[in-house]
Predict the structure.
Amino acid sequence: MIQELEKQMKEAARNLEFERAAALRDEMFELKALLVEESDLTPLQRVRLLTGEE
């Protein structure tokens, strides 16, 4: 789901729909934060997930 949101966000930015792109970005960050809260990841893995360095 996160990858789909990222794809939609990039498409919206390409189409100069910056408000929509920002909303999708925010939703993506919220989902990543929830994922980190519910996971048994190490601190480094958590940072990588939140910053997109997966």
In short: The mean pLDDT is 90. The helical segments are 2-14, 18-37, 43-51.
